[in-house]
User: What shape does this take?
Amino acid sequence: MNRSTYFVVLLLIGTVLMLVAGASNGQRKGAANPNIDAAKRNALLSADLTWTFGSKQQKGWYIYTPLIKRLIDTKQDSGSTQFAQAISRWQAKSGLKSSGMLDEETLYAMIKTWQDARLKDRSQALPDQLLTAPVADFYDPTRAEELRQVEKRTYAAYKRMISAAVADRSLRLGHTSRGELASGEKFLKIVSAFRSRDYQDKLRRQSPNSGTAGLAVNSPHFTGRALDLYVGGDPVDTTDSNRALQVRTPVYQWLVRNAERFGFRPYCYEPWHWEYVL
Assistant: This one.
């Protein structure tokens, strides 16, 4: 082989190696693209996805972000590739296409998961199952005695949960020396607990346009095992702006992370509503 032929061969070998390396890099970039694209779509879908819940049209899923992150086990921002990867893993585990995009199908699957975890027994509490909680436990310090009834085990679990929340100094909850919420502290106080069928019917007549997402016909409040807790904003206002404010409060996010330890599960549509399921 003469010298010119030798250099031509070397040049050809170098070209081939460069092409192989380029193809390999392209494959790696291509493998990353789905997560990048999914992250971009999630950033849009979080505010723009149109869907329906309880006969009410909804816009986006940003209000449910704390619950979603808890469900898919991530702390990453919803517009990140890591969030998209966590969505993809959850989709695969749930038998869905692993697109990494939190689309309508995926959101409904998540809502089903949350709804399935709620209280199953909707029978009305019997009088001997209820106790009358002190007015100090309630958001409204003038709440009537007949509206302060709570199922006994639920109340005990609530008090254990409050002790844990008070002990978490990051929440900065006003408290007594006994580890209870101070009289001037509003967060995590009970807004509403047991509500009889008659009282529930009265509320429904007062809010005829609330729909099934607002005041359920077979309300878990009948059981005495559903608690509406103050988590910020207007206590029980279902407007998107109010719910968006509530889900950003430290106490709500603490409940998302910790309430299950004490037997409470959320009603995803209402940030204030928690049900004792044990």
User: Anything to note?
Assistant: The chain has two domains: 1-116, 127-276. The two ends are 84 Å apart (CA to CA).
